[in-house]
């Protein structure tokens, strides 16, 4: 399965934020939209990624002043990215090796979406379920074997 197929299952809704916004705004968006990451955009270019991990690290570092912390101060700069034609196994390997639960999917300089570890797990389950149904159907419709010697 390709990353583009995972995006097709998931949908391509994108949630972004500017690097000069505050962490409090990011938390509000992430909670309202029930997402664990935001792509950070400046002047039409992806400049970083913000996940709940960076938010928590910022909170720990700044204490009670975390709401006014700038996105630019906590975001992941130059995050790993996936391409739409990347195989799911390569995507999973990249996510595990780089300890990155969310990966932007880029086609050149164009952001196509974000895939999460949850999206990958869901795609694997759907793919296995489909294969399981196909195998059961094949077994159910197994051709009758002719007796030998007739």
From TrEMBL:
InterPro entries: CBS_dom, CBS_dom_sf, Diverse_CBS-Domain. Gene3D superfamilies: CBS-domain (3.10.580.10). Residues 8-68, 75-130 form the CBS domain. Keywords: CBS domain. It comes from the Bacteria. It holds the Pfam family CBS. This is XRE family transcriptional regulator.
């Amino acid at each position: 399965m390709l990353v583009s197929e995972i995006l097709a299952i998931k949908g391509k809704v994108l949630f972004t934020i500017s690097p000069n916004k505050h962490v409090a705004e990011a938390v509000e968006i992430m909670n309202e939209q029930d997402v664990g990451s935001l792509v950070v955009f400046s002047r039409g270019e992806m400049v970083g990624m913000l996940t709940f991990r960076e938010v928590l690290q910022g909170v720990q570092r700044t204490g009670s002043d975390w709401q006014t912390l700038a996105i630019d101060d906590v975001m992941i700069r130059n995050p790993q990215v996936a391409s739409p034609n990347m195989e799911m196994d390569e995507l999973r390997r990249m996510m595990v090796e780089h300890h990155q639960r969310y990966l932007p999917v880029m086609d050149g300089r164009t952001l196509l979406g974000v895939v999460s570890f949850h999206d990958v797990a869901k795609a694997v389950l759907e793919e296995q379920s489909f294969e399981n149904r196909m195998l059961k159907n094949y077994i159910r419709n197994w051709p009758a074997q002719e007796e030998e010697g007739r």
